[in-house]
Amino acid sequence: MGVRAISQEAFDDLVRENVEDLGMEPSEALEDALHTLKLQGVDLSGIITCVPGESSIKDNPVIACLDRLKEFDSVSIDGPLREEDLDEISSLFVKLKELCCSQQDSGNAAIATKHGAVDLTCSLCSKIKIAPGSNRNRIVVPCLKALAVLIHDIQSTEAFRKCTGPSIVVGLLSNSISDSDSLDAGFAVVAAASTGNEVVKQSFMELKIDELILQVLNRESKTTVRALYDAICVLLTPDDNRVVASQVYGYARTFAKLGIATALTEALQAGIGSDSLVSASIALKSIAVNDEICKSIAEIGGIDTLLRCIDDSGEQGNNTAAKTCCSLLSKLAGSDSNKSTIVEKRGLDKLIKLAQRFSDDPLVIQEVMLIISIICLRSPDHAAKAIEAGAGDLAVQAMKRFPVAAQMQRNACNMIRNMAVRNAENRSILLANGIEKLIRTAKANNELCRAAATDALRDLGLDNYNN
């Protein structure tokens, strides 16, 4: 069902009628209007809830900021923004962003959007694009940063789409290829606008945002454009509940074919010391959507790089890098040929060593267990090597130590199942180590892993697995 909405004018009229027609006190009139509208299911986000006459809407700092920007927008309608206006416009966008990011006034972004901020900012952005190059940089970053904050829900992403926002932003990005700050601010807008909106994603793809992304990844500058990686992930995430079939799977294949997967894999080679390692790993995982892409990443050294980063993250105690690299490796391990590659490169030993180094962190351990369970799937030989590397001991120790870590317990059950199902020797080893009791305890205490625990008990050859 669609959410009912109300305009600022209609809200003010309702409060005014309560005062003038029903004789209510101003504060009572406001409270009654709010209560009535909420009972009717009206969305009040973006509405300035004040008593008309006591305080003007124009007194609101967000509205005051927008009104001043509208003046500049109307003055510059016939050409580029004037040199003398740029400093004030820049300051206004900085102020608008701060207001919309304020924790004390969390509804300011909705207020701004309700009063046309997205359309206004896009209009000014289009004039920045045609302003003289020497003047543009001091305004383009504040403008784009404000726009990224203003776009916060489906209504604002639709407003962005309808006012040709994607075309405007891609134009700005294309003209800022050497400026890292402008690129970061611009790709933050791409990420915000594409979130939950399949049509906006499509618009960016039609504007060849993928070619622009590759161009930025391949440039000589070593400065990390962090929002670029966020934009990749959002563009490749099927998060619009309004569409039946998302196109993002095809976009991922397009990204890989173009060379973005290769560029990201090469970026990982900088290793644990790179400030883009985590972001690039997450972005690459979003592209690795099929066997062909996973194999291609391995062929250019992706698995070697990840195993080295896993080793280094363990040595340096960097659990964030450890989790992220393991997560990407688990995705690549979905390819059967990559499973063998990981085993051949002593990946199982490296993973068990990592889990030992982070023995107090169930989040790292559960990622290790996930990879091992994938490697052992339909492969009794790999399962035997996993037991030899210490995966059985890992399961016993971790399940004892973290009984309420539900996701880790679930991953442990899946790993045990895959190590046992086609390997009778493994079943005997695991049962002898007391794994049955641990699985039954996990099944009783953690609803999340009940199905996985039942499957593990069954594949261990136990008759009463449903008990």
UniProtKB/TrEMBL annotation:
Gene3D superfamilies: Leucine-rich Repeat Variant
InterPro entries linked: ARM-like (IPR011989), ARM-type_fold (IPR016024), Armadillo (IPR000225)
UniProtKB keywords: Repeat
Name of the protein described by the UniProt record: Armadillo repeat-containing protein 6-like
Lineage, uppermost ranks: Eukaryota, Viridiplantae, Streptophyta, Embryophyta, Tracheophyta
Gene name linked to the record: LOC104721416
